[in-house]
Amino acid sequence: MGDVTDESDDTRRCPCTSGLTFGECCGPILAGQRRAATAEALMRSRFTAFATGDRDYILDSWHPRTRPRQLVLDDDTAWYRLDVESTSGGTPFDTTGEVVFTAHFRTPGGREAMRQHSRFEKRDGRWVYVDGVTT
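The structure corresponding to this sequence follows.
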């Protein structure tokens, strides 16, 4: 799934397009070695989880109140770029945050993009995705 071929290679560029390597950015978060410090970091790690097909992380990082019982990822969708457009709150000192982003992906039909305004909440000291509105 996606453009990521070897999840153990921490030196490749992170799928979230932060400019950092996977090992410096989302890799440790997805592996449970580190928590996302901000709502934006959680958004980036969730995008990377979509890009790498890490369904368990996506569900685990979702607020229990809004998390779906089941998540089906489309193997024909390749997530390749994340553009974070704005953030509000979501710092290590906040309990809520919002991130507006555009996620770019490819399907057999061509390139597409999805823009979303997402809400996050800190729950027991850990950022979780609450919900989002696609615009």
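The longest strand covers residues 110-123.
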